[in-house]
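#dry-run=false #mode=assembly
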Amino acid sequence: MTVGIVGAGQLGRMLALAGYPLGLDFLFLDRTADAPAARIAPALLGEFTDPRHLGELARRCRVISFDWENISVEALRAATRGSGARIAPPLRALAAAQDRLAEKRLFERLGIPTTRHAAVDSPASLARAVARIGLPGVLKTRRLGYDGKGQAVLRTSTDIERAWTALGGAPLIYEEFVPFDYEVSALGARSTHGEVALYGLNRNVHVDGILRLTRAPCGPPALERRAHAHLRHVLEAFGYAGVLAIEFFVRNGRLIANEMAPRVHNSGHWTIEGAETSQFENHLRAILGLPLGSTRARGHSAMINLIGAVPAARGLLAEPGLHLHDYGKAARVGRKVGHCTIVAPTAAARDARARKLLRRLYPGLGPIP
Amino acid sequence: MTVGIVGAGQLGRMLALAGYPLGLDFLFLDRTADAPAARIAPALLGEFTDPRHLGELARRCRVISFDWENISVEALRAATRGSGARIAPPLRALAAAQDRLAEKRLFERLGIPTTRHAAVDSPASLARAVARIGLPGVLKTRRLGYDGKGQAVLRTSTDIERAWTALGGAPLIYEEFVPFDYEVSALGARSTHGEVALYGLNRNVHVDGILRLTRAPCGPPALERRAHAHLRHVLEAFGYAGVLAIEFFVRNGRLIANEMAPRVHNSGHWTIEGAETSQFENHLRAILGLPLGSTRARGHSAMINLIGAVPAARGLLAEPGLHLHDYGKAARVGRKVGHCTIVAPTAAARDARARKLLRRLYPGLGPIP
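#status=ok
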C-alpha cells in the first residue's frame, strides 16, 4: 500500500524509514527535489497547492498525510474530493493548528488552560489588546509561523508601533507573555479505530525559538496525567487519526497550552530509540487503522537537534550509545539538519551526558536548566 | 557519500534503512527491479557480473559492499581495479566463504574446530570420502549453496549413488553429519581501523534448511567467549572490515564451525531492536572507518522469520511489542519475505512469547527446543 505525504522534509523522511519495515510504499509531494524524504522515496515535484499533483497523490494513495502544517486545507480537500483517498490527520485539526486564534479558541472550548490572547487586525485593536492583556506580550501572525518566525515581543508601550510595523498586514494575535518555568509537550496517537497510545511527557528547551533539547519521559506523574487528559480531549474532539503534539508552558506546576501540531513532532524524535514504538511508526499505524504499538520508554532519553550543519560523523559516533539522524540537508544557519539521541539507564545519567554533549556541540550556549 | 551494494535483497534493504540516518546514500545492483532494496534506493538493473554496471558502481561509490555471497569475486575485482573504490568486506573473505572447502581449510588453519570433510570430484572420491569419514554424512556443492539448497544427506551406502546423481558435475565436499545439540552463530564487526565489536551469541533453529528462529543473547558465557575468540581469529586473519557471521554446531558443549558469512546475517536481525546498535549500522560504520556502535543487548530478543507470505499486518501488530519487518517481496513457498522481533525483559518471558508466536505463525511446526 502506498501512503501519500504532502511535504518531504525530515519528518516525512523518518515516516518513510518507519514505514518501509511495515511493507509500505510512499509518494511525497514537495517543492524541492533534494528534500530529505525525496532522497529516499519517490516524490512529485511542485507546489503544495498544485491540483494536478494533489490529484495524483489522491489517485495513487489510499491515505494522504502531511509532514508540515503550512499547506492548503482547501486545495487538499478539493483535490481529494470523491477520490476515495482518506486524509489523516483530519483537515479540521490541520485548519485549527494553522490559525493561532482558532487553536486558542479550541483549547478554551475544551477547557484546556491557555494564554490570554486577543485578535489583532489594526493598530487600534493592538492598542486595545495591550491595554487589556498588559505588557510584556507577544504579537504573532495567526498563520504560517514556525520556529519563532513571525513573532515580536512587546516589553514597553514604545514596542507597539515597531511590532505593528514588522508584522501588521497579516491577521495577528496578541498573547500574554508567560514567564514560564519550563516547557513540555504531550505526544500521542489515536487510530482510526479510536485506539489511543500516549508517550511520556517531553521536557523541551528552545534557544532562539528553535527546539534544542528534549528530555523524556520527564514526569512528574501528576503533570503528565493532566497533559495526557488535555491531549485526549483534543484527539477525541476531532475524531483524530495520527500523532498529535501539544506544547505547554509550565508555571508553578500548572500547564498552559501554547500550541499544537497535528503531525509527528520534533519533541518526539527520541521515541525512535527511546520508546518501544516510535512516533513515526505509530503515526502510520494510526492513520492506517492498524493496532498501535507500545509507547513504553526504553530508558531515559535526550534528543539534541543539530542546527546549521551536521558535525563530522566520525566525532559524533565516537560518543558511546549516540544515535545520529542526519536528514541529508545542506548546511544553513539556523536550519535543523539532523538530531542525535542518547538513551541512559537513569535520568541523572541522561542529564549529565546531554549537558556534556550540548557543550561540545554548542560551545557558546549558556547553562541548560 | 554513496555506498554501492551488489545485491538488493532484504539485507541490502536493511543496510539502506540503517544508513539513511547516518546521512549516507546508496546505489544497488540487482537482477530484478522489484528487489527489496531497489524499492527504497536507486539501483542498477543487470547481471552481478556485468562489467559496465560494476564499473558504474566503482565510479559513483567510495565503498562497495555486497548483500549476498553468490557474486563473482573476479568480476568485482576487475571492475574496481584502479577505480579508487574500496571493496569491503575483503574479497579474500568472500572467496573463502564461497567455497565450502576453502572455508573449512581456513577454519582448520586458524585452529577453529570444524566438521571432518573431504573434497569430492568423482564417484570414486565420494566412495573414498564415505569410507574415511563414515555414514551418515552430507554431500554438498562447494559453491552456490544456501538455505539448505545443493545438499544431500547420505544415511546408508545405497544413498551414495543417488547423491552423486543429484549433485555430481559440480565440485563437491563430503562432510561428517554432526548430531548436534543445537546451533549458534557468532556475529561481530571489525572496522577498517581494526576496532572490533561483537554481539552476544545467537541460538538458531533451522527448519527444512531455513532459519526459523533466533534467540539472543543465548550464552552461556564460556561458550560465547570461545565463539568470540574464533570470530576474532577470522576477522584478524583477513584484516576484515564489516560484519562477519560464523555458524557453529554445539555438541556436548563444544563448538564445531559449520560455515561463515562475510556480511550481515539473518541470525543478527534481532539487533535492530534488541541491541544498542544494529548489525546493519555497524556494518556501515565498519566499512566506512567510523567508530563502531555499542553491541550491548537491550533485553532478551527473539527473531522469527516469516517464510512464504507475510501474514496480515493487522494481526501481527496486535501482538504487544512485536516489530515487523516486511521486505516487500511477493509471496512464494519457502521464501524469506520478512521477519518479526520481540524483546522481553527475561529469557524465560522471551522464550514463552516466541513459542506462542511460532505456534500461531506455523501451526504445523513441532515443538521448538
